[in-house]
Amino acid sequence: MASLAIRVKSKNGQQLLKDLTSDSTVGELKMFLSSITDVSCENISVLLGYPPKPLDISDNEKKLSEIGLKTGETLIIEEKIAAAKESASQTHSDRTVENGVAPQEPVGPCRPGILMKKVVPSDNSCLFTSIGFVLNGNIDTTVHTLMRQIIAMEVASDHETYNEAMLGKPNAEYCAWIQQPSSWGGAIEVAILSRFYGLEMAVVDTLNAIINRFGEDKNYGQRVFLLFDGVHYDPLYLEQSDGGLQTVFPAEDMDIYKEAEQLAKEAKSSRQFTDLNKFTLKCMICDQLLTGQVEAQKHAKETLHTKFGEV
């Protein structure tokens, strides 16, 4: 049975929970939530939906399907009031230590550092690998599978928005297509993942020296940066003076945003971008080399070969 993809928000930031299925029990859910939020199973309070409403997790034996929990949901985790009062009696230093060991601390103002590009593999999943890096701080080339599933489920659930005119193909055909490892991601996929993860994704376009902001109208509190050269995506991160790195930034931090803008201008002036009419692709099925997007599309139409790699 397929895993559920559930976003969890708590005092420790936000994480993606993907270890449970619809047949998992409420008790198992509580254990996982406790491990990533530092709230004991007995004191966990779960809110769901918009506006957020309490989710009944009183029966540990119930299956997640029985309490209406589905993939793509966002859970807000809080401590029950009694537990919160008890925590308030702890010393200030105790609270500091507790927050200090959080898996993902809430982002604060950027420390001095340099905005840099992290190079990810040049495969058909570079967008998803890049998003995985800014979310988790490491390169994991397997994250594309889950992200593709998230996108397909979102598209399949809204035929009116995601129609053939928008997708360039019928809804069902697109849903099957995007889950293939050979399919590239672009603006549609970035927009969906921005909403799913609840943060703004700023794509630094070095071809046009501009930044395209996805989720800007949602007033998200956090922002991440991706670099796009016309074909390939790489994540951007701040290399800090103490050797650490930061990939998630406060949305109100315009200093780092201006630095990303400057990076785009410098990349364009030094021609660090790929001209879609001149870049070379290789058909991974018949090994034919193709020049430009038009040739690749023509080859795919004539041969039904749809797996291409960058050269």
Descriptive report:
The structure is a single chain. This protein has 311 residues and is α+β, with helices and mostly antiparallel strands. It folds into 3 domains: 6-100, Roll (Ubiquitin-like (UB roll)), CATH 3.10.20.90; 113-269, Cathepsin B, Chain A; 280-310, no CATH class. Helix content is 34%, strand content 22%. The chain has helices spanning 26-37, 81-88, 92-100, 126-136, 143-156, 164-167, 171-178, 187-197, 254-269, 292-303, and strands at 6-10, 13-17, 44-48, 53-54, 74-79, 113-117, 200-205, 210-214, 222-228, 233-240, 245-246, 249-250, 280-283, 289-291, 308-310. The strands form 3 sheets. Strands 6, 7, 8, 9, 10, 11 and 12 form a 7-stranded mixed sheet that branches. A hairpin with a 4-residue loop joins strand 3 and strand 4. Helix 4 (126-136) crosses helix 5 (143-156). The protein is globular, with a radius of gyration of 22 Å. The two termini are 38 Å apart. It is found in: Cytoplasm.
